[in-house]
Specification:
By secondary structure, the chain is an alpha/beta fold. It has 2 domains: about 240 residues, Aspartate Aminotransferase, domain 2 (3-Layer(aba) Sandwich), CATH 3.40.640.10; about 90 residues, Alpha-Beta Complex (Aspartate Aminotransferase, domain 1), CATH 3.90.1150. It has a 7-stranded mixed sheet with strand order 1-7-6-5-4-2-3, with helices on both faces. A 4-stranded antiparallel sheet has the order 8-9-11-10. About 45% of the residues are buried. The model has no long low-confidence stretch (mean pLDDT about 95).
Amino acid sequence: MKRGFGSDNHSGFSPEVLQALTAANSEHALAYGDDEITARLEQLIRDTFGPQARVYLVFNGTGANVLGIDAMCNSHEAVVCAETAHINVDECGAPQRVVGCRLLTVDTPDGKLTPALVKTRLHGFGFEHHSQPKAISISQPTELGTLYTLEEIRALANLAHEHGMFLHVDGARLANAAVALGCTFKEMTTDCGVDVLSFGGTKNGLLMGESCVLLNPVLDVDMKYRRKQMTQLGSKMRFMAAQMECYIESGMWRRNAEHSNRMAQLLRSEVEKVEGVKIMYPVQVNSVFAQLPCEVWHRLQQRYFFYDWDEEQNVVRWMCSFDTTEQDIHNFVNALKEEICRK
């Protein structure tokens, strides 16, 4: 596939990861997480997020989200999320099938929930005919590339806790958010009252594997059995742990996220110079959403792979990766200009 702007999942993985995997491959080790590397990672997660944090490695982001929701909700309960949330749009109903709970979606102008928006779904408590609201789930950053401030996350956590609920954060791109906000992972999660975090890295230079991090010890009940039943327990877990350990300890998470964010800003600045193209949302992390004539982006897709986001509004999404180069962006923008001129 030609280098493009379809997804930060399309890039390969960082060289540091290969070194970590090679080192982990030198000897035998106990399976299913009973190895020294996984033990080191568990301590590193506590050092990163706080002493109460517990990490459960899984194969993918959907596994992390579903495992986290399963920790928070019973089948008669519900999760409040944005209409655009990944758990609602791109996980094929996995939370509903596996956990059995409902998703109570809320339309948002920018992908972000607010206490006022969430309150529209907070009713029916104690009424046996209604699914009981039990959790709020947000993506940080959102699926539209927008960011919650620390104060906004804290306000949602406070609202959840006032109603006996929990706050979950889908952090598939958490590194990009932390870099953009200039804060630590702990400041953006534990210190804001987040209860459960899906902490990812495959969109930022890892080869495979994500994690569900429980920040509220109340939820750490039978999690090892839940993960096993969800078929998310890796036998050679040390290789997932080695990647995540390298990701955090070496500072790779920060370097890669800084670069992809910076490339998105360059893409935004270059695209804004092109007549007939409109940037739809603030570019805060590594995604750019643009509106342009449909015949233009249809032709451009023949040259570069990227996703159309909203066909009715002619909005497309362009993602930058840790290995996106300035030349990649200049080549792409030149191709865009050519197709605009053909219009």
